[in-house]
Design goal:
With 139 residues, the chain is an alpha+beta fold. It has one domain: Alpha-Beta Complex (Sufe protein. Chain: A), CATH 3.90.1010.10. 43% of the residues lie in helices and 19% in strands. It is built from six helices and three strands; from the N terminus they run αβββααααα. It has a three-stranded antiparallel sheet with strand order 1-2-3. A hairpin with a 2-residue loop joins strand 2 and strand 3. Helix 2 crosses helix 5 and helix 4 packs across helix 5. The longest helix has 22 residues. The chain is globular. The structure holds FE2/S2 (inorganic) cluster. FE2/S2 (inorganic) cluster binds next to helix 2 and helix 5.
Length: 139
């Protein structure tokens, strides 16, 4: 049911944990399944220099947050906005249809962390919308 890449990122998640001094923190949940994800970012000169996550959720949510944090490291903020849930799913060689919503948690948590960074620094990030706490209402 799951690709080898999904299993790998589920069994050996990359970037799990938290940062000593994150520049942006995003936390979102999905009330429908009760899962919660937190993403922390270090950002220097518009570039994401480090990313960590904590996911209290299903295996697909863990695999997508692992892959999403891998994909955004080293990217500019604008490039990171292109790391959509579809991009993350492609990088994982797909997810079963019933698990697609789990990948939205990673995208939303990433956006929420970027939003937090922008708020703290008085910046506006083009194309970034205010995050929602519960993506179950949103999608
Ligand atoms: Fe909730 Fe996967 S079932 S994120």
């Amino acid at each position: 049911m799951y690709s080898q890449k999904v299993m790998d990122h589920f069994m050996n998640p990359r970037n799990m944990g938290s940062l000593a001094q994150p520049d942006g923190v995003g936390r979102v949940g999905n009330a429908k399944c009760g899962d919660i994800m937190q993403v922390e970012l270090s950002i220097q000169d518009d570039v994401i220099t480090d990313a960590k996550f904590k996911t209290f959720g299903c295996g697909a949510a863990i695999a997508t947050s692992s892959m999403a944090t891998e994909l955004v490291k080293g990217k500019t903020i604008q490039e990171a906005l292109q790391v959509t849930n579809r991009a993350v799913m492609e990088a994982l060689d797909g997810l079963p249809p019933v698990k697609v919503h789990c990948s939205l948690l990673a995208e939303e948590a990433l956006h929420a962390a970027l939003w937090d960074y922008a708020q703290k620094n008085g910046l506006e990030i083009e194309g970034l919308e205010a995050p929602v706490e519960d993506i179950g209402d949103h999608h």
